[in-house]
Structure formats: structure tokens, C-alpha cells
Amino acid sequence: xxxxxxxxxxxxxxALDEITYRxxxxxxxxxxxxxxxxxxxxxxLAAADKSTVMPDPEENWLTPERATSALDEACRKKVSKGYxxxxxxxxxxxxxxxxFHHDQIVGTFxxxxxxxxxxxxxxxxxxxxxxxxxxxxxxxKAHA
Length: 144
What we know:
Blueprint: E1 2-4, E2 12-16, E3 19-29, H1 35-47, H2 64-79, E4 87-94, H3 102-106, H4 109-112, E5 122-127, E6 130-136, E7 139-140
Parallel strand pairs: 3-4, 4-5
Antiparallel strand pairs: 1-2, 2-3, 5-6, 6-7
């Protein structure tokens, strides 16, 4: 079972085999992205029976450097809020590299999230349809 938490903190919890895991969640996206505007444009295009494919210039794509910086910033913001150490942190990395730097970006996850590694029980990143377990109890996972 997964549900939003009824109190302010944490954001959600998951119950597996009678054990409940609590998590904070945050999202990392391209700076300046206006998803609401994008959505409105797609709705208008669809209503006019036009293509809803939106251009995404290469200069906006995720790179290892951008991933490192954005993940570090997101972790530092969460750490500064003083969460309970029994909570995990899930980061939704909502920014695409279109497969060009995938392995290099995954390779940045450990160092990029180190700021949160001892504040949260675990740090996981949801990116490109995959959940990456980066830290657990202050220890970096092997692939991170």
C-alpha cells in the first residue's frame, strides 16, 4: 500500500510486509520550465487537431554537469528543512538527456546527493522510468 501521509511530514508512506517506510519527495526539473504553459499549448494544439510534439532544443537537455548541480541543490534544500532521519528521500529527476549521457548521469548520482546521505535513511532517484537506489543508511549503493 502506498498513500500520501495525512500530516505535513513526510510526503508519503509505503507499507510492505507490515513494515511502513516514510518518504519525502522532491522534483528536479529544467530551470525556468513552465509546465503549465506547456500543458495549455498542448491542449490548444490538440483541440485544433495539430501535432502536440513540442520542440526541446539540445541546449536544454540534461548533462552530467547539470544533473550534479541540480541534484545537489535539491538535496541541500531538503536537508535544510530538518527532516526526521527515519525518512527516505525520493527525487523525481524530471529532465531528459534523450539517452545521450545516461550512464554518465547515473554515475553522478552518488556524489550529487551526498548532502542528503546522512540526513535521510535512504536516497533514491526516479529517472527515465527507473528507480535508482543511491544511498541507504549513509552508505552509497554500488551502482551510484
